[in-house]
Each structure stands twice: as C-alpha cells, then as structure tokens.
Amino acid sequence: MTILLLAEHDNVSLKAATAKALTAAKQMGGAVHVLVAGQGCRPVADAIAKLEGVAKVLLADAPAYEHMLPEPVAALILSLAPSYDAFVAPSTTDGKNVMPRVAALLNVMQISDMMKVVAADTFERPIFAGNVIETVRSKDAKKVFTVRITAFAATTSGNSVAPIEAVNGVADPAISSFVGEELVKSDRPELTTAKVIISGGRALKSRENFTKYIEPIANELGAAMGASRAAVDAGYAPNDWQVGQTGKIVAPDLYIAVGISGAIQHLAGMKDSKIIVAINSDADAPIFQVADYGLVADLYAALPELDAELAKRAKKSAA
C-alpha cells in the first residue's frame, strides 16, 4: 500500500496537524508520501522531509495552489491517484474542503474523522457527535480519509531526510477564485494545538466579559481562548474560537469550561481533553458529567478569585 498525505501549511511553516495525520497514515502500513501544494512553499517541504516515516515529499509549487482552493488541489491529487492506494488529510478546514471532492472524483466513499486504524481496511470513526464509535471496513480499491488529529500523537523528526520531488501542476478547473482573507494575529497558542484552553459560554453575556473575566486567566496560564457555539452565535466571541461539533475539535492537557452548560454539540469537540474543569452555577449542568473537577459557583465571583490566586502563585514562583 502506498499512501498520499496532503500537508497542512501556510506556505511558510508546517502545521502540527500534518505530523499527527502522518502518525495515522503510518499505522495503515506501506510507504507514506506527502504532498505539499502551495506557492513559495519549499521550506514546508524541507520540514516534512525530516519527519520520521516519510518516504518521499512531492512539491507542487504553483500560483493555483497558494490558497488551497479545493478544485485545483483536488485536480492535482486526482492526477497523482493512479500511483496511490489511499489519500489522507487532517480533519481541518482545508482537509474537509479538499478530500470530499477527491472522493467524489474517484467515485469512492470517504471515511471522515478516522480516529483509529484497526487493520489495513478497517477503521474507527465517531458518529452522533462522538456518542457512538463506528467501525468501518472499506472495500474501495482507493481509500480517502480525513483524520481526527486529537486521536493521534505527532510524528517527530527522524534520522534521515526524505527525497523531495517536484511535480507538475494540472489545469485549474477555474470554478472558484480567491478574493481575500482577514487573518487574526495573536500571541496565544493555536486553539487546536494548545495544551491549555479556557472557554466561555453564553453565561458570559458579552464580549466585554470575555475580556474582563476569561482573558486574565488565559494570560496567567498561557492558554488559548475558546467559546461555545451559543456564545459565538450571540456575538460574544469570534467564530475561530468556537469549540464543538461544528467548530474546532480539541484535546488539550487542561480544558476549563466556564459558564458552559455542556450541550452535546460542545462536548463533541472537547471531551477527549485529558483534564476537564467546569465552573457553572447550575449543579445539574451536563458539563459536570464529563468534568474531572467541577465547581458550582457564580463565574463572576469565582474567576476573579482564581485569577488572584494564579497571580499570587506566579509572583511567588518568580521570587
């Protein structure tokens, strides 16, 4: 079996999601080749070539791939398809955008959010918002996957460097075009790779309260900030903070849920966290059923106390 992994990157640096998807690809057995599609992205290819278990890096450097539009990237993968038995991408925005189109062009089923390799043709994936784990056996000659990256550890650098081979681009279907983007720059860790996350829910009541109550604790802990879908829909937090089934799937070492009831939509995105701490005034909130530690309290009183205690400990450590 030969596997093609689509790399996740920003044309400058490699995203951690790729190293985790690589771990999943290696567990399937066979040689793993990694496709880097972008423009001016040679540094990304160099970084991937150093990862353990990469047999070859394919570099497609062309303007059509700069923004990872699904149509040209899928057309590129289709042109490479005869040489591969499986196609893998992280279950990120780009992966979810490209791989369904690849599966459709190949006329095969896609296995989404694959979280465990049972055998070369058998896999596990979550359904019903993660409440059921489905075992899937694929009979397709060519298999297409997106990988739930929270289920796999990242592959580290190996002792050898894989060869990098340039591949020619293919004709752009020209179905879509890039118009523009607004990038939010932050010194905080990226939500999907952060080791500590503090998230707020609708109980915060305003964007200003996120700044006043959540942000100081995030600063003390060096944490990423998240939000429930209800908080995002209400305009209290930006869309890229949303954690949940229709947001980002996270599994940090520590997840602090503040004023979040624990709707199934949110739990699907964070219940694999190693330690879950819940702060909620409702003792019957569903979030307490998955929390390792729960505090029934008014968040407007509890968070300032927590912030003061963290600041005190940080000052003591510095001394």
How would you describe the overall organization of this protein?
It is a single chain. By secondary structure, the protein is an alpha/beta fold. Helix content is 29%, strand content 25%. The strands form three sheets. The chain has a seven-stranded parallel β-sheet, sandwiched between helices.
Keywords, please?
alpha/beta; 319 residues; Rossmann fold; seven-stranded parallel sheet
Task: Please give the radius of gyration in angstroms.
Answer: 21 Å
Number of strands: 15
Number of domains: 2
CATH class of the largest domain: Alpha Beta
Q: Uncertain spans, ≥5 residues at pLDDT below 50?
A: none
CATH topology call of the largest domain? Rossmann fold
Strand content: 15-25%
Biggest sheet record: 7 strands, parallel
Average predicted confidence as pLDDT: 93
Alpha-carbon distance between the termini?
57 Å
Strand order of the largest sheet: 5-9-4-1-2-3-10
CATH architecture descriptor of the largest domain: 3-Layer(aba) Sandwich
Q: What structural category arises from helix and sheet content?
A: alpha/beta
Q: CATH homologous superfamily of the largest domain?
A: HUPs
Would you list the SSEs in sequence order as H and E?
A: EHEHEHEHEEEEEEEHEHEHEEH
Count helical runs: 8
The share of residues in helices is 25-40%
**Global morphology:** elongated
